[in-house]
Amino acid sequence: MKKSTLALAVYAGVLATQAGAAGFLDDSKATLSSRTLYFEQDPRENPSARAKAQDQRQTAQGFLFNFISGYTPGTVGFGLDVQGMYGINLSGGIDNRLPTTANTVSPTSSDGSPVADWARAGANAKVKLSKTELKIGNALQPNLPILVSNDSRLLPQTFEGGIVTSKEIDNLTLTAGKLTQAAGRASSNYADMSLAGGYKGSNNFQFAGGDYKVTKDLTVQYYYANLEDYYKQHFLGLVHVLPIAEDQSFKTDLRYFHSTSDGENSNQRVNTGYRFANGYSDNGEVDNNTWTAMFTYTLGGSAFLLGYQSVSDDGGMPIMNNTSVTRDNVNGGRNEGEGGNSVYLFTDSMITNFTRAGEKTRFGQYSYDFARLGVPGLKAAVAYLHGDQIRTSATAERSSEWERDMRLDYVFQDGLMKGFGITLRRANLRTDLPVASQADTDQTRVVLNYTYAFK
Asked: Which residues form the signal peptide (predicted)?
């Protein structure tokens, strides 16, 4: 934990003591979550050394402790949230142990093999006035259209900085903040942020926006974000749910991202280190429009989803990496597990996210909740996505890719196993992209989850 964050945590604790424990402790909650992950990634029989390096079979155990305090009494309330993470490698790793290989489950040692264990701790000091809340610390996990904290492996990605959320106006939620560093889902360290292909980091990500509930069935969104020296981004969103009858509804979800270069990235000098690489991009400069439309019809336990997504030709969609890739990594330094990001799109799938330059994606999903058949806690889903018209250079023919995802979840509802969850996921990706961009891949995940709430 950095000194600044630790000081804030101590200050909040002192204030809480002075103001009295009522509220601060009475409204607090503490949980300990356990996650066991078996992760298997097979790049098929691709002869590429890069693809072979990604071949991975690994089992790991993670523990996540969260203490969420209430607020001290008074006009201005003070609180403190504390978080601790611990990961253990149980077996396996990357078959081809190259120091530059990115292990997606755990940090790696100097020879490229997974470390035996790793840990990370953080805290957020928080202040609340009326319906406005400020959090400052290094355990922030934003879930916003312009930034989604990644939690797709063993432990969640966290950010350092400050976020303020206000609900003073009925039906309007305003959010703004500044983030300075991030810790990856498989890392013990905090580092600057960047884009894919960039090996210099930025410690300044600023954003602001809001969600307005026009009616009980219609929500509109606008957000602005800026990762200094990389990109500026505007987001517009609309979500509408049309009730048809009992157990029937039709949902429309529209999203649009407009992204342009900022600072060093706009200089069009590839060697500055602030470049962007996601499919074709002129000199590594950010220049992108991405829009997507999703329509979901729900009938009883069934949900049918269809959608279309379009990425502009001039460059792929910028998605923040949780940390910069250092020059040492580029020249053969070891990767410490910092990789992994999420994006606010349905196409953010198990293996890829269909956001390459020029890509046009058609997708669909069917899901079913077996509670309707008397089996509460059991859910299943299957999705298929097909993207084409991918631009990989100024002159090359267009490429395509498709992915099929299947998911099965079960959470025990009673007895000694109550709350224990099992998730099985399987994905297949096939592509005719150049090998350096993406290899055919099969991926399997088995996840065991349990959360114990202290009383």
From this structure: 1-21
